[in-house]
Design brief:
single chain, 193 residues, alpha+beta, 4-stranded antiparallel β-sheet, 11 strands, 33% strand, globular
């Protein structure tokens, strides 16, 4: 084989790999959305002065701070496995954390330790992989307002619908009182016209 054919073959192989990797990531996410188990995570208020960075809503969850046996056993940035269950209202609850994936059939989620207390309260703050909800730029400001208002009004419930499969998670939707935030934004924009 001459060098031109070898170069062409190498180029084709590299191009195929570059197409395969993002295609595989998309297919994996779609599989989680289609076949993953649905969990609803209640959100908590965040700094109302900076809920958006760019084109996404920054989300913070009630189940992001958990109590552990010994805070010294955990390190910031370490990957952990969060054991999940649901409460009587159908919202996700943390049942515990582990450094290893569970061997039982219990649902779990891969997350990272964001912060470890060092004051003896034995608390971990978790960094979930679904803390940003991306939107179209034209709808971002109205979504920010709707989300901010829901967090300030204690009679409203804001939550994220997350699909989880084999520890991997995909954020499906953010809802306020059961209405998708995208619909609230469209209604808000229609009323302004």
């Amino acid at each position: 084989m001459n060098s031109k054919k070898i170069a062409l073959l190498v180029f084709v192989c590299i191009a195929l790999v570059q197409l395969y990797v993002p295609a595989r990531m998309i297919l994996d996410r779609e599989d989680i959305l289609t076949t993953g188990k649905e969990y609803r995570f209640k959100t908590q208020p965040i700094d109302p002065n900076d809920p958006f960075r760019g084109k996404f809503v920054a989300l913070y969850y009630e189940e992001a701070v958990i109590t552990v046996q010994n805070e010294a056993d955990w390190l910031p940035g370490e990957t952990i496995f969060v054991l999940l269950t649901t409460d009587k209202e159908g919202f996700a609850k943390t049942q515990g954390v582990s450094k290893e994936p569970p061997t039982t059939n219990q649902d779990f989620l891969k997350a990272k330790v964001a912060y470890v207390t060092d004051n003896g309260t034995n608390k971990l703050t978790l960094d979930y992989p679904f803390d940003r909800y991306y939107m179209e730029e034209s709808k971002a400001y109205d979504a920010e307002l709707a989300y901010r208002e829901s967090q300030l009004d204690t009679t409203q419930t804001a939550y994220a619908v997350v699909r989880i499969k084999a520890g991997e998670a995909v954020l499906q939707e953010v809802l306020i009182n059961g209405v998708p935030i995208r619909e609230l934004v469209i209604n808000r924009q229609n009323h302004q016209e």
